[in-house]
Amino acid sequence: MNTDSATDYASFHQPVDSSFLKKVQDSPLSQFLLDAEQIQFFETNGYLAGIRVLDDNQIEQLRAELSEFFSPGHSGSQWWHEYHTNESADPNSVLFHALGAWRLRPGFHDLLWNPAFTVPASQLLGGSVRFWHDQLFCKPAKHGGVVAWHQDYSYWTRTTPMAHLTCWIGLDDSSVDNGCLQYIPGSQRWDLLPITGLAGDMEAIQEVLSESQWEQFQHPVAIELKAGECTFHHPLMVHGSYANHTDRPRRATVLNVVRDGVCSQTDEPLLAGADSIACGEPLAGRFFPLLRDSADR
């Protein structure tokens, strides 16, 4: 399908680039299934890391598309739900953060339908997979900023019940040195914490933790990944990432999904520029496509 780069790809609820998913679409879906040990690890620890979801050609296409987003006035810029060249207030500590890349470019659009992602997501959610929203988190070389400790669902309480899943996909190798994702294993069993900010202050979360939580907080696990690998985590998992002072960037795309049936908890639009969904109605429509039906085999 040939579509102009300024087209809003939210109009298409199927892959639009015949090459991006060709290799995996020709493969048996069984190869993407998680085994019982992996599922048990997720249920115990609140995350599962090291799952390969992109090949080298897909990584290069997404990197090329991403590079266009850094240029002012790029084609399709009107389709972003959020766009921050620097989420941080400090120009020496840059965190590029944006929501809605799937609307702007074919690779980021088709990524949503990648069975290497949707098959394990369906297993971890325990049902059909519906799109919630995507994100980009990019830390430039030498002066990349932090993503402060937080729980994703703290930002998502406008949807209910809590049946959400996050998939963080590296577009570069990520390590402790360049600001990889870090988790507090077991924190998915904590209650919902107040929001203490997304960028700038890695210590702010201490203000809202109990003594026992703070003790557990002293043992984070760094999630070092190769480009093309992902980590899945629970919506209450406390996670964050430190600054990048290396000479290489740390770029990632994040796919946030829900189990089909999750509902809006407001009459206001769930995302800037999206159609409203009445309070109590399930997510559906143009901006929240069904990505995988659990009945499909």
TrEMBL record:
The keyword Oxidoreductase applies. One of its GO terms (molecular function) is iron ion binding. The keyword Oxidoreductase applies. Keywords: Dioxygenase, Oxidoreductase. It comes from the Bacteria. This is Phytanoyl-CoA dioxygenase (PhyH). Its cofactor is Fe(2+). InterPro entries: Phytyl_CoA_dOase-like. PANTHER family: ECTOINE DIOXYGENASE, PHYTANOYL-COA DIOXYGENASE DOMAIN CONTAINING 1.
